[in-house]
Design brief:
Elements lengths: L1 H17 L1 H7 L4 H29 L1 H21 L3 H10 L1 H18 L5 H20 L1 H9 L1 H22 L18 H30 L5 H25 L5 H21 L6 H27 L5 H28 L3 H31 L3 E2 L2 E2 L8
Helix pairs in contact: 1-4, 1-6, 1-7, 1-9, 1-10, 3-4, 3-5, 3-6, 3-10, 3-14, 4-5, 4-6, 4-9, 6-7, 6-14, 7-8, 7-11, 7-13, 8-9, 10-11, 10-13, 10-14, 10-15, 11-13, 12-13, 12-15, 13-14, 14-15
């Protein structure tokens, strides 16, 4: 259930990326406007995330997961109806609501129902749902698009989202009575601030690849729309493996250093995309590396949130870290789109590499400071935390 919820929360992003060549042709959407769809969706998610986290803490995961799936279904249906850019952008903005709820609701469910020792593995599996969405967009839904059109693929996704809402309502245990309203925390502190900063730069790079790699494969490398969409599917499959594997390895005391390692590997993926302009076959290697490293960084950051969240704060802490990630998603694609529209694909991939370098720098700096803080008493942002081995 949690895996399905995460898949739905990001499905529109991957569909817009996989269907980019067809949308630019059928709706007259320019590369810059294609990037703005990501900005509208994730800008909304970033703004709503602090409120979404507090809402999850107050109402419980069942109510919010049902709402997530219903809103996702509505947003996908509106995209399918879009006659042009106006309704498309409005529908994508509405799709920011499930994105804002997804990590807080699923992490809250994990903290409530999963023993501490099993949480990293469960978190990895639920985070793999995002990449399951990438696979669905890049292969079965792209194949349906080739046979029946992109609107049919979006209507199919909307029906699946509606079915997931009914599944959540039947499967999940009832939430406790709504908690009293509390103060919404807008500014992250301590380890949450570091994770949000890391997620900002990581998200900017990931969103650019998700949004434009299919268009790059079609326009610059000559793969054709269907093969170019398959790049998203490959990214999705490797991302599932990467998120599950790295999350299981993210034990307390080790997870902090994994973030810098994953960001460094992401730089390699961006450089492979740069090199593929001269050797097109490298694009397949690039998306494999990208799936293993870049998309796994967000999963490991959520493992750290679950491990370190104080009682009653899993929803808000998850939302603040997710807000940083979504802000990166909102900023990255428009910048890349300006370069892509002028044919400067290589400069675009250099920009992505620089964003991943900054993510690695933030993660490495925090890991060093966190270790020193642990040696000096284990105080993180004003909250005394357990030793590394007992942090879960």
């Amino acid at each position: 259930m949690l895996t399905a919820a995460m898949a739905l929360s990001m499905l529109q992003l991957f569909l817009l990326g996989a269907l980019g060549p067809r949308l630019t042709a059928d709706l007259g959407v320019s590369p810059v406007l294609l990037g703005l769809t990501t900005t509208f969706g994730f800008g909304t998610a970033a703004l709503l995330s602090p409120l979404g986290g507090r809402t999850v803490d107050r109402l419980g995961p069942r109510r919010t997961l049902v709402a997530l799936a219903l809103v996702a279904s509505l947003a996908l249906g509106l995209i399918a109806l879009a006659p042009g850019a106006g309704l498309l952008l409005a529908a994508v903005a509405l799709g920011g609501v499930p994105q804002a709820l997804a990590n807080p609701a699923t992490n809250k469910a994990i903290v409530a129902a999963v023993p501490p020792a099993a949480r990293p593995g469960v978190t990895g599996w639920k985070m793999s749902g995002v990449q399951l969405g990438a696979f669905a967009a890049g292969l079965p839904l792209a194949a349906l698009t080739a046979a029946a059109g992109w609107r049919a693929a979006l209507w199919t996704a909307a029906v699946l989202a509606l079915g997931t809402a009914l599944w959540a309502a039947r499967l999940l245990p009832p939430d406790p009575p709504a908690a009293p309203r509390g103060r919404v925390v807008l500014v992250p502190r301590g380890h949450v601030a570091w994770l949000a900063g890391f997620s900002l730069f990581l998200g900017a790079g990931i969103a650019s690849v998700n949004t434009y790699v299919s268009l790059f494969g079609d326009r610059r490398l000559g793969l054709g729309p269907t093969a170019a969409a398959a790049l998203i599917a490959v990214l999705g499959v490797t991302g599932i493996a990467g998120r599950v594997g790295w999350s299981k390895a993210a034990r307390p005391g080790r997870a902090e250093w994994l973030l810098a390692l994953l960001a460094a590997g992401s730089v390699g993926a961006a450089l492979l995309l740069l090199a593929s302009t001269g050797a097109p076959w490298l694009v397949w290697v690039a998306v494999l590396v990208f799936g293993v490293f870049a998309v796994s960084g967000n999963a490991v950051s959520m493992v750290l949130v679950v491990q370190r969240a104080p009682a009653g704060r899993a929803g808000q802490d998850s939302a603040l870290v997710a807000a940083g990630f979504f802000a990166g998603f909102a900023v990255g694609p428009p910048l890349f789109g300006l370069l892509a529209q002028s044919g400067r694909w290589q400069d675009g991939w250099l920009l992505v590499a620089a964003e991943f370098v900054l993510a690695a720098a933030v993660a490495g700096t925090w890991a060093v400071r966190d270790r020193r803080g642990g040696m000096g008493g284990g105080v993180d942002g004003g909250v005394t935390r357990p030793s590394a081995r007992g942090a879960a």
